[in-house]
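Q: Sequence in, structure out?
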Amino acid sequence: MTGQKAVTPSAESLAASIKASKSRGLPPVEKWNPPFCGDIDMEIRRDGTWFYEGTPIGRPGLVKLFASILIREDDKFFLVTPVEKVGIRVDDAPFVAVDFEVSGEGRDQRLTFTTNLDDVTVAGPDAPLRFVRDDETGEPSPYVRVRRNLEALIDRKSFYRLVELGLHHDDWFGVWSGGAFFGIIPSKDLPKE
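A: Exactly. Output:
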């Protein structure tokens, strides 16, 4: 091994590796522990667009394939196969929740989110909603867990719809889903009418 340079895999070699190991459903990435092979020039922008070497990946099937092997460790993101692990950049969250459906009311309400990559998740204890406010602007960034520890940024129109569903509970303004209450903002911080 002395004198040999480590080779970082390309997006093409990763895709071929995924296809070779892919079965029905999501790959069992939590069972894989391959060696780290370095970073590749792949990025997921805040709007959910995937880029490779500065160019948008225009094939939705390929993006979904990469998303199926995406993992997060602390604040770093990686694509993993049974034999390799490479780092990628993610501006915010790797997915964008582009819509949701509502069923039921009050504590029995269920909010079912769909992402830009057609993932579907019901917000609840195992898929919590999270709301982060920018310290400078006060602007909220809402998220829902999609799978494992990967989240989707909830798009603006969907966030406004969530606010319309909001109600007060335990000194918070928020929404119910899957038997859990998710506070958006403390009631005391709401503007006075």
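The first strand starts at residue 36 and ends at 44.
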